[in-house]
């Protein structure tokens, strides 16, 4: 006799601040659910040096805030599973979730997969990834203590990583294609006042150079003068934007042309029962506080949806 298939009430994909908040609210609503993540709980909080704009915490390391949220879930009896979701389809009133763990089923799904770092797509980047090219200065800057490195980008992530890393490395070349930065004024001023950060503006990277084993420099071009030069560095940290982690939604027409998920005010997509929250959504502000807000809204909406289907 075949085993009866398990159908979850709600299935949460992603255990960053959005997914963990959704789990808390579903637990409080006494709704059966499962939450999984491909990596460690916390999402990008795990690679954030300091969080100083989340209410209740003036100055807390990102991994510490991630662990506090995780501890709260554990204290509530919520276990986080580990799965790499490959595809989602909807058959009749059930969602079919396909992952490296097999197939699972749910009445409602909450997407909380966030974003991934965008690549430079220049020669040498792939060859020297993890050999001097890294997308997390918080994780890897200590490997280059006393060395010279390059950080590429002009947004909050690039400048925050530069400010953090300046206390570890000997010198940072901050390479940005414009004169103006997209980061918040406070962090811009901090970076400009940091003596071992040299601003290399109006400049784009052309190639990451190495000796076959490790990074030795980055070739850049000034877009105003056309001048090209090589900056000798031991590591290159690109922070040039983010892409939505949403390829597993390819069969469902719920994304914009950049891959971000489209939702309504209750975080539901155009497919009934499919919700999406956090940084993976099309939105103007991607912060921990907006992710947690999305999680609460979606959990309560999913609760109402599931109860209507009983």
Describe the overall structure.
The protein is an alpha/beta fold. The chain has 2 domains: 7-116 and 242-309, FAD/NAD(P)-binding domain; 119-238, FAD/NAD(P)-binding domain (3-Layer(bba) Sandwich). It is built from 6 helices and 18 strands. Strands 1, 2, 5, 6, 7, 8 and 18 form a 7-stranded mixed sheet that branches. The chain has a 4-stranded parallel sheet with strand order 12-11-10-16. Strands 13-14-15 form a 3-stranded antiparallel sheet, with no helix packed on it. Strand 13 (203-210) and strand 14 form a beta hairpin. Helix 1 (17-28) packs parallel to helix 2 and helix 1 (17-28) crosses helix 6. The relative contact order is 0.18. The model has no long low-confidence stretch (mean pLDDT 95).
Strand content: 25-35%
**Overall pLDDT:** 95
Can you tell me the CATH superfamily of the largest domain? FAD/NAD(P)-binding domain
* First and last CA, distance: 27 Å
CATH architecture of the largest domain: 3-Layer(bba) Sandwich
The number of E-state strands comes to: 18
Q: How is the main sheet built?
A: 7 strands, mixed
Helix-strand layout with pairing:
Layout: E1 7-13, H1 17-28, E2 33-37, E3 50-51, E4 60-61, H2 62-75, E5 80-82, E6 85-91, E7 94-99, E8 102-111, E9 115-117, H3 137-140, E10 148-152, H4 156-165, E11 171-175, H5 185-193, E12 197-200, E13 203-210, E14 215-222, E15 228-232, E16 235-238, E17 242-244, E18 274-276, H6 288-309
Parallel strand pairs: 1-2, 1-8, 2-5, 8-18, 10-11, 10-16, 11-12
Antiparallel strand pairs: 3-4, 6-7, 7-8, 9-17, 13-14, 14-15
């Amino acid at each position: 006799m075949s085993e009866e298939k398990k159908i979850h009430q709600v299935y949460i994909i992603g255990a960053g601040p959005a997914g963990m908040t959704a789990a808390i609210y579903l637990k409080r609503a006494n709704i059966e659910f499962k939450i999984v993540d491909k990596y460690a709980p916390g999402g990008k909080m795990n690679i954030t040096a300091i969080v100083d704009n989340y209410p209740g915490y003036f100055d807390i390391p990102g991994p510490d805030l991630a662990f506090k949220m995780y501890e709260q879930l554990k204290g509530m009896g919520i276990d986080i599973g580990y799965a790499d979701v490959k595809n989602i389809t909807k058959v009749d009133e059930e969602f079919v979730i396909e992952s490296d763990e097999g197939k699972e089923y749910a009445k409602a799904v909450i997407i909380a997969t966030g974003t991934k770092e965008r690549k430079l797509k220049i020669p040498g980047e792939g060859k020297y990834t993890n050999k001097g090219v890294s997308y997390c200065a918080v994780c890897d800057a200590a490997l280059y203590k006393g060395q010279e490195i390059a950080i590429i980008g002009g947004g909050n992530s690039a400048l925050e990583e530069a400010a953090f890393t300046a206390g570890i490395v000997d010198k940072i070349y901050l390479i940005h294609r414009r004169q103006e930065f997209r980061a918040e004024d406070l962090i811009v001023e901090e970076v400009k006042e940091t003596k071992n950060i040299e601003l290399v503006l109006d400049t784009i990277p052309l190639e990451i150079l190495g000796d076959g084993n490790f990074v030795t420099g980055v070739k850049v071009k000034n877009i105003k003068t056309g001048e090209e030069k090589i900056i000798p560095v031991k590591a290159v940290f690109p922070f040039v934007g983010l892409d939505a982690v949403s390829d597993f939604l390819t069969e469902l027409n719920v994304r914009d042309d950049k891959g971000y998920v489209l939702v309504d005010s209750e975080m539901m997509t155009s497919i009934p029962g499919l919700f999406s929250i956090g940084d993976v959504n099309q939105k103007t502000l991607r912060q921990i506080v907006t992710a947690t807000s999305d999680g609460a809204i979606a959990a309560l909406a999913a609760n109402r949806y599931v109860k209507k289907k009983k």
